[in-house]
Specification:
- With 56 residues, the protein is mainly α.
- 30% of the residues lie in helices and 0% in strands.
């Protein structure tokens, strides 16, 4: 994620710098949990989201 953020914009013919897989599965309601975090950009956005008021 950090490499992709550094690149900012991918031009035609340039290789992809990063990719993501989101997986969802049925489970009983529970608080949000970060399972893996491997970048400074992800840490920033997780911290930002934790400061938001609850919604529902």
């Amino acid at each position: 994620m950090d490499t992709g953020r550094e690149q900012d914009t991918r031009l035609d013919g340039e290789a992809e710098r990063d990719s993501y897989v989101l997986q969802f599965w049925p489970a009983p309601p529970a608080p949000d949990a970060v399972v893996r975090q491997h970048s400074a950009a992800a840490a920033y956005w997780h911290g930002f989201a934790r400061k938001l008021p609850p919604h529902g």
